[in-house]
Specification:
alpha/beta; Nucleotidyltransferase, domain 5; 5-stranded mixed sheet; 5 strands; globular; disordered C terminus
Length: about 190
């Protein structure tokens, strides 16, 4: 399974492509899409649309994992991240690629084993799990790889023989018959 992870942002949008299965994931690509801070918002969103659409066409992912936007104290930041996330969702929908959104806590839990892990712990685990020589930079690229790993570990939408994490399998078993994965959670 190939997953495109996206850490949405208007100035820097982190992207990471990971091939599964869960036990031996491989980083295919990581980086950021940058937009000019002095350009109009509509222009920046168009650039993001063109770049993400091209990436999806080139990488041909089985799924796109996007960080779920949540409201924080800075309304301007929340708005621009929400706009960027909307563009990513649109690009995936236009390419008919399934999208799953994950909260930061879900990503931290899946990758570092604890929902309260700090950025350094998550980055270290991204480097370790993907057997990279160093942590991807900038941090947005590492975050995007973490999102892709989270999706691989979640057990959601597993074409091509992916595996469900033991923790998720136990949670589904405890939930009883008819339980299903929704947004990476039973």
């Amino acid at each position: 399974m190939r997953v495109l992870g996206v850490d949405p942002g208007l100035s820097r949008c982190g992207i990471g492509v990971v091939d599964g299965p869960t036990r031996r994931p491989v980083a295919v690509r990581a980086g950021v899409i940058r937009t000019a801070a002095d350009a109009a918002v509509a222009t920046r969103l168009r650039v993001l649309h063109v770049e993400v659409s091209a990436l999806i066409a080139q990488a041909n992912p089985d799924a796109v994992a996007v960080e779920r936007v949540f409201f924080n104290n800075n309304v301007r930041t929340a708005m621009s991240v929400g706009q960027a996330a909307g563009i990513v969702l649109l690009c995936a929908a236009q390419a008919d690629v399934p999208v799953v959104e994950y909260t930061p806590t879900q990503v931290k839990s899946a990758v570092a084993g604890a929902g309260d892990a700090d950025k350094e712990q998550v980055s270290f685990m991204v480097r370790t799990l993907l057997r990279l020589a160093e942590v991807p930079r900038p941090a947005d690229a590492a975050d995007a790889l973490a999102l892709a790993l989270c999706h691989l570990h979640s057990g959601a939408d597993l074409p091509g023989g992916g595996e469900m994490s033991p923790r998720l399998a136990a949670a589904l078993a405890a939930a009883g018959p008819g339980a299903q994965v929704v947004d990476g959670r039973p």
